[in-house]
Amino acid sequence: MSIEIKVPALPESVADATVITWHKKTGEQVKRDENIVDLETDKVVLEVPAPDDGILGEILKKAGTVVKAGEILTTLNKDATMKMAKISSTSTAEETLTAPAKKSSPAEVDEHLAGPAARRSAAEQGIPLEGIQGSGKSGRVTRQDVLKTTAFTSTGVSESAASPGIQMGDSGDRMEKRVPMTRLRARIAERLVAAQHNAVILTTFNEINLSKVIALRTTYKESFEKRHGVRLGFMSFFTKAVIEALKRYPAVNASIDGNDVVYHSYFDMGIAVSTDRGLVVPILRDADKLSFAEIEKAIANYGRKAKENQIAIEDMTGGTFTITNGGVFGSLLSAPIINPPQSAILGMNKIEERPIAENGQIVVRSMMYVALSYDHRIIDGKESVGFLKTIKEFLEEPARLLIDV
Asked: What CATH number should be reported for the domain whose range is 104-165?
């Protein structure tokens, strides 16, 4: 019996998807619920699981093909699995013991000695995984190994020089490589351009003395992690401070819809998360009702899902305000771009010890520059400065977050 494996229903507002990675090849045996192919939309990566045990038929949609919901990707032959099982059951123990050791096929190497990120990067670059020397545990190929393989050297051609898309000059030492944008990267680019064209974006800056937050974290980090099973990070403090500031400046939590300004009575916080495919912004819904521990657990869960490409479209739908932390990459000062239809975004940066004047004395404190980018069509300069100043006040006296003053 043959089962058709089709492109699943796509998220709302998504018209099509691109086949990016096949995890099984024609003729290979697959098990029920095993992921056989990844499809990339402009928002998320969708996994297509096997509906039953069977042997994979002809692959009808190769990597790079644009597909729509309902199109047939391949077929699954259940009868072939049953026949193989019968043949296998007739084998004697003696044959099993005397059979020579089977060498891993390239497909097995691809599947078991390379992580999802590595397989995806290799597929995007058109590089066979079996030709890459793995540096991970037990020789596992990592994404970094794939990137190293595709990197150009100053003295000649890398292993991937024969890959499609590479153009070489006569001397062989001046090369270019043309790689299509991933759908997510293209969508990010489209939204950023739209944000610049459709909003009047201004940015205001301030700096925050985080010494008391750091002291609080140092005092309670072990007991917090022991009790809640998650580390006490900075993001929960910033999320709490932002929510208090949004309550005082509701226009910053609003959005524009045509000629109307929509004010939100709820606080759905977008937390920017970096992935191999680009930046995604999952949402902490009703964040004002979450405790410090619940915020940290939700962020940790989104971080895990991002690494595994498991963030779903519903995780990123909505949001009234966004926080992004360029400090984790070493950014000292940057101006983020708002995430439409939101009207503002807070940019965190690197914490750095700097000398400051405090009560007439020069002291060294742990300081962070913060930036608020906002849509000047509905947020005035006075509101933006007051909003950022409120965040600063709460974080410089974090006890205020706990006693609501």
From this structure: 4.10.320.10
